[in-house]
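User: I'm putting together notes for a lab meeting next week and I want to include a structural view of one of the chains we've been expressing. I don't have a solved structure, so I'd like a prediction I can at least talk through. The sequence is below, exactly as it appears in our construct file.
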Amino acid sequence: MPRMERISLTDGPIDLMALVATVSANEAGAITTFLGTSRATSHDAKKVERPVQTLWYEAYGPMAIRKLHEIVEQAEWDFDVTAVAVVHRTGEVPVGQASVAIAVSAPHRGPAFDACRYVIDEIKRRVPIWKRERFTDGEEWVEGYDGNVASA
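Assistant: Thanks for the context. Below is the predicted structure for the 152-residue chain, given as structure tokens.
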């Protein structure tokens, strides 16, 4: 199986096993993964549950990659893990498909789980990627990066 980039944006489906292969190492006794998938329903701004047709992600590419690198490097340092890899989709993500995947290898499971949670939380907070949900009767931008590119 070919190894993929440790940090990337893609407009196609995510290969979780290729991402896992990227962080695999003999010194790692644990590999944790997080796979964020698009769900069939969501709550709109008025907190009304609505069926989702598809998601659409837009990213400020160069800055998103830079921020992903910063987050990965910080996770590797803070949690003393072997390796971290992350890939995020852009463009259309149909219901049921993955929009983000994270893989973390570490000598022990605790740091791997902690680093994985840190990475997804920081992606939501710091990376200039925006999500739009499309419904049968419209669309809506939803949570995520606050849009302040200058402060990112």
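A couple of points you could mention at the meeting. The two ends are 35 Å apart (CA to CA). The CA atoms of residues 40 and 52 lie 5 Å apart.

User: Perfect, that's what I needed.
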